[in-house]
Amino acid sequence: MRYIVEYVDPELLRELQLERLSAVAQRVYQNVPYYKQTFDELRITPEDIQSLDDLQSLPLTDKETLRTNYPFGMFTRPMKTVREIHASSGTTGLPTVVAYTENDIKVWSEVMSRSLGAAGGTDDDIVQNAYGYGLFTGGLGVHYGSLELGATIVPMSAGGSKKQLQLMQDFQTTILTCTPSYAIYLAELAENSGINPRKTSLRIGLHGAEPWSDNMRKEIEDLWDIKAYDIYGLSEIIGPGVANECIGQDGLHIWADHFLPEVIDPQTGKPVPEGEDGMLVITTLTKEATPFLRYATKDIVSMTYEKCPACGRTTPRISRVKGRTDDMLIIRGINVFPSQIESVLLEIEETEPHYQLVIRRSGALDTLEVRVEVSDEFFSDEIRQLEALESRIKQEIENVLSVAVKVKLVEPKSLDRSVGKAKRVIDERKM
Amino acid sequence: MQVRQISVFMENRAGRLQEITKIIADAGINIRALALADTSDFGILRLIVNKPDETLKILRDAGFTIRENTVIACAVHDQPGGLNKILRVLSDANISVEYMYGFVEKNADEAVMVIRVEDTEKAISTLLDNDVKLLKGEQIYSM
Fold first, then answer.
1. Residues A90-119 pLDDT 10s
2. Is B142 domain-assigned?
3. Residue in chain A nearest B40 by alpha carbon
4. DSSP class of residue A47?
5. Last residue within a domain, chosen from B69, B91, B114
6. Given this structure, which CATH class describes domain A334-427?
7. How many CB pairs below 8 Å do chains A and B form together?
């Protein structure tokens, strides 16, 4: 299915964006006390937004805003009209909550369907969806998009790798949606199980939710003999399907009729020139239940407005995510902030908040090791007490992060404290 | 009758034990008994030395996590059943052993068992009541 809006004259797109921006500004001003207060403090009203450039006078919304207004303070619609709620982990344990009306789910289905379509998916495809189903938006987003596309969806969810391989062969699935590292892991598992991944019926891989590189893309494409595409999304905006690569594999088309993108200098807040790196900021133009003005994604990208030479779409294209403005890590598709681990350690009396995170890619899967310094106060000379402490730290961190970790007790002062501040994160993953 | 023991936390990596023994050797301190408990990641080195105060200081200065506690040193006849007798005394008194290690004394027909229990005082009086020969700290340090 082709959506005409993907190919419209950029001038028409801007008109549509402005119309929708005015409407969403009105909606949040009237329904969200936080936004009303922000507008009032700046002595502006929604009517002052007369052009897309006027958007720059508005403050950013971020995860912190969502947490401050936890759980439902950012809703613009009564719960009666909310059909679905998702939540992702926040830095202090409070989740960030996003909601969907019936129309929001329609929009989500459509943008995700467009994303599958941009990558070459059609209603003849059988989509093997190995993103996790649940509060994480990855699974259900791809699910809705596949239904909208008219494809056949196999809702595998994450994990169960042997079954993934079995059904992939038995059902002859053609599109695999999962994190890039899982795509590699699964191919290696196939080879070890005597299955030639290049001989399966897979033809397209749609990979996102964690950082990857052109090298990984080449590896995935070689292992499976498929085309692998980058997908971008975040639950605060809608979930997966905010942007997706087309067959040109040169930048991700952002569905700008729903998501108004800006790329700004994270320090000054000023827009960066086209093509230069900055923080991606997105305003949700059509979201009903939880629309956000100028949501700071903290993702570093560059953006071009050039018409795509490969597919002819006129939507702006963002680059692959090149980094973060904060210290967020993505491990096996799950967002992890070092501060989450720090707060857990602060709550455990026996530990000092001296820690270090070591992330490795073992095989194709990421492992997170948390090194914690042993201090005189809680050093017991009995192994079992130290081991009990180790497993307690492990459990409490896993409860907060929802990702498996290995805890390793280390000698005091052994963790790097160079340049005054400890080096908290060692990322040894080769992308 | 209590014997001072120093425990050192150490990461399980090549050469680490030697680094500690070097610090001790350089200070002219003699190790009387030593035991190592370990997991795949870390280990605990337990030491009885001739100069406990000095050892505590140099290891602390070197940045190690250390802990001092007390253990009991029993003289055990170097013959079958020697150790069993001691453990039976403790077991009958419902005293559980956290850990133990042994060494053989020079020029004597006795082995020395170092025993760590939760309630050291109670264990000492129980053992003495049952005619187990205990060694004083000074005896061990100056062996």
1. 555 688 999 999 999 999 999 999 999 999
2. no
3. A408
4. G
5. B69
6. alpha beta
7. 48
Q: Which of B39, B46, B63 is facing A413, going by the closest CB pair?
A: B63
- Mark whether B13 and B24 lie in a shared domain: yes
| Residue in B7, B46, B65 closest to A412 by CB | B65
Q: What is the CA angle A398-A401-A403, rounded to 5?
A: 65
- Domains of chain B: total: 2
Judge whether B143 lies within some domain: no
Residues of A in contact with B98 (CB under 8 A): 382
Asked if B98 and B87 sit in the same domain, the reply is yes
CA distance B107 to chain A (A): 31
* B79 and B105, same domain (yes or no): yes
What superfamily in CATH does domain A68-326 come from? ANL, N-terminal domain (3.40.50.12780)
Q: Which residue of A has its CA nearest to B98?
A: A382
Print the domain residue range for B53.
Answer: 2-69
Segment B88-139, tens digit of pLDDT:
999 999 999 999 998 877 757 788 999 999 899 999 999 999 999 999 888 8
Chain B CB within 8 Å of residue A391 CB? no
Residue A369 with chain B: CB contacts under 8 Å: none
CA-to-CA dists, residue B122 to A34, B73, B85, angstroms: 66, 14, 17
Q: Which sequence spans correspond to the domains of chain A?
A: 68-326, 334-427
Phi, psi of A417 (to 5 degrees): -115, 30
Quote the CA–CA distance of B53 and B22 in Å, as a whole number: 17
Sign of the Cα pseudo-torsion (A204, A207, A213, A216, in order): negative
Whether residue B141 lies inside any domain: the answer is no
The C-alpha angle A165, A167, A169, rounded to 5 degrees, equals 70
A334 confidence band (pLDDT: 50, 70, 90)? confident
B94: burial class by Cβ within 10 Å (0-12, 13-18, 19+)? exposed
CATH of the domain at B96: 3.30.2130.10
Give residue ranges of B with CB < 8 Å to any A CB.
7, 9-11, 37-39, 41-42, 44, 46, 63-67, 69, 98-99
